Please model this.
Amino acid sequence: MAASAGPEIERLIALLAKLPGLGPRSARRSALALLRRRDQLMRPLAQAMAEAAERVKPCGICGALDTTDPCSTCADPSRDAGLICVVEDDGARWAMERAGAFRGRYHVLGGLLSALDGRGPEALRINELVARVATGEVREVILALAATVDGQTTAHYITERLASTGVPVTSLARGVPVGGDLDWLDDGTIAQALRARRPA
Amino acid sequence: MAASAGPEIERLIALLAKLPGLGPRSARRSALALLRRRDQLMRPLAQAMAEAAERVKPCGICGALDTTDPCSTCADPSRDAGLICVVEDDGARWAMERAGAFRGRYHVLGGLLSALDGRGPEALRINELVARVATGEVREVILALAATVDGQTTAHYITERLASTGVPVTSLARGVPVGGDLDWLDDGTIAQALRARRPA
Model:
């Protein structure tokens, strides 16, 4: 692209284009929107990013990103320390929190086992999970991992690693999503939902 | 949304969601991507925004956003000062520059006349355009405005305002876009392309 607006704007566009969901075209639109709303949006966003980059750290207990350590969930006495929900990353943890149905604590793995990407157990926070469960305080470990090959491989591995602790390991149910039309569901989901059918 | 990651991250997500093209979901994905790539992406982007917010100003001649005043195009002696391309905003100017077909200078209006939004001529840089053209240096004014009601209203108004100067005012051609399939084109474009047909 011709350097039509000076290197500063070109650099801003190039960096914005690295955000997920923003291509080169939407990065330009974003840069323009930012330049038009400097005081309301551009400066506050720059500051929010700089502050978050400085202050957000992984929690020493569960690995969740937060500005405090232990994180706000681990430090919250009203959250049940006997229930640990294992998630792939903070995105999955935020999704669980938005659902508002879980009142226990988390363990953020930092990824999934992946033969393709060459990611083995040592790259994930699995030893930390085993150590947490081994303290004896935990009554149940809930695996909230993706229903993909990598997610299920990881779930299987964690279940085996935790077998010796005697703590029950459960997994999120598979089935028809709320609002899901059977026409649009894949065969695997329908088959699993049928096997896991419950009294109506 | 439950404040699951502290107010700093919530604030970052809220600000990111204001960027065009990013909804709440993609803003969360972006925040996560930024937090994962702090040194490679988050800090440089924060700095690029802060710098651009500070240094980018509209050019005193053409109104284009740039870090220098006059802007790099107005200051470039190889750009023909006798040709002025009138554009709605910097996004349109960048698009023209990317096309790489124009070697003259620009005039950025800062919007279009709009009865709906109550935007009149005094809100745009039209007086500045008339003053530039009146200097006698300009041989042609090319209107590169949107083929919308507002764009055409603005083009008509500018043409009338410049009539007394005697400088020719032209407009970008209407027609079939490159790669455009006639099946997908609207009737208006096809009709205009037919009227403006040229020897093959």
